[in-house]
Amino acid sequence: MKTGSWREALAAPIFAALWPSLGRLALDRFPRHDELNALAGPSLVSGGGAPIRFVPPTSAGEPSAQYETRIFETGEVQTRPDNWHDLFNALVWLAFPKTKAILNRHHHEQIVARRGERQRGTARDVLTLFDEGGVVVGAADGKLSALLRDFRWKDLFWTNRAEVLRSMRFHVFGHAIYEKAIEPYKGVTAKALIVEVASELAHAPTERQLAELDAGAARYFSRSSSLATTRSLSPLPILGVPGWDPANEREDYYDDVSQFRPGRTEL
Q1: How far apart are CA 165 and CA 102, in angstroms?
Q2: What separation in angstroms does the CA of 194 have from each of 149, 217, 264, 267?
Q3: Of 54, 43, 38, 48, nearest to 90 (Cα)?
Q4: CA distance 39 to 88
Q5: Angle CA(39)–CA(193)–CA(53) in degrees, nearest 5?
Q6: What is the pLDDT of residue 267?
Q7: Which of 14, 91, 144, 188 is such that its CA lies 20 to 30 A from the CA of 177?
């Protein structure tokens, strides 16, 4: 995609969590490191408490353990210039600072605890899965949350569409999902973390929604049980979210079982 078309592409609702930061950046080119760093306030810190700074990578193909350890110890997030994947990662740090810090701390603790072992372990798999492919769902109605967890996609997104629009909010966390959303295709599935919220949050400004959902997601990942299995988060076919694909304005859209599967699947 040409950078000149950013404004149109990133205006899609799926990018809403990034809008507060994108609104402070020029949208005719990739932002420089200093421009991203100018958006980082004092509360943006690593899992080790170091101020976050977005920096050029020191070497190609650095192992993920070294990448996470460097963030934890120094706050330096290696960010490749002119790279969508890394740009979205930086923007998610700005949108969900507490959750990103918790994930970084867990990564560091797991790296230290499993040093010398060949396998990454389940905990790091969970962390990576959500970091790359997570969606934070603010839900004020337990009935709707149950429909999501039970894979009842048509009941959720069509039969109860008005209620979803009124009381649920979906904010993408995973930077790999954002990258896919530039040119979305059928079947992209995220991992949904449902955060219970008050009904009025759905109509609050985006910044307030993000702050509350960030706090809720951070609380969830603060529990050791959150890292026990990769199946603890609900699969979510992202193009089923109302407004995230123009085609889902039709009822029969949700009859496509290749996208809306009835059983549990992994990302």
Answers
A1: 30
A2: 9, 8, 16, 16
A3: 54
A4: 14
A5: 20
A6: 42
A7: 144
**Contact criterion met (CB below 8 Å) for 187 and 260:** no
Q: Identify the pLDDT of residue 62.
A: 65
Burial of 14 (0-12, 13-18, 19+ CB in 10 A): buried
Judged by DSSP in three states, 53 sits in: strand
Phi-psi domain of 151 (left: phi exceeds 0; alpha: psi -120 through 50; beta: other): left
Question: Do the beta carbons of residue 165 and residue 242 sit within 8 Å?
Answer: yes
CA 75 to chain centre: 20
Is the Cβ–Cβ distance between 201 and 138 less than 8 Å?
yes
Give the residue ranges of DSSP H helices in 2-121.
6-9, 19-22, 33-38, 64-74, 84-95, 97-113
Give the percent of the chain with pLDDT over 90. 78
Distance (Å, rounded) from C-alpha 128 to C-alpha 267? 11
CB atoms within 10 A of CB 81: 12
Structure tokens at 225: 């049980």
Give the contacts of 213 (CB within 8 A, at least 6 positions apart). 96, 136, 138, 169, 171, 195, 197
Residues 6+ away with beta carbon under 8 Å from 241: 14, 157, 170, 248
Written as one string, the DSSP assignment of 221-242 is HHSGGGGS-TTSSEEEEGGGST
CA atoms within 13 A on the CB side of 151: 12
Question: If pLDDT is split at 50, 70 and 90, which confidence band does 33 have?
Answer: very high
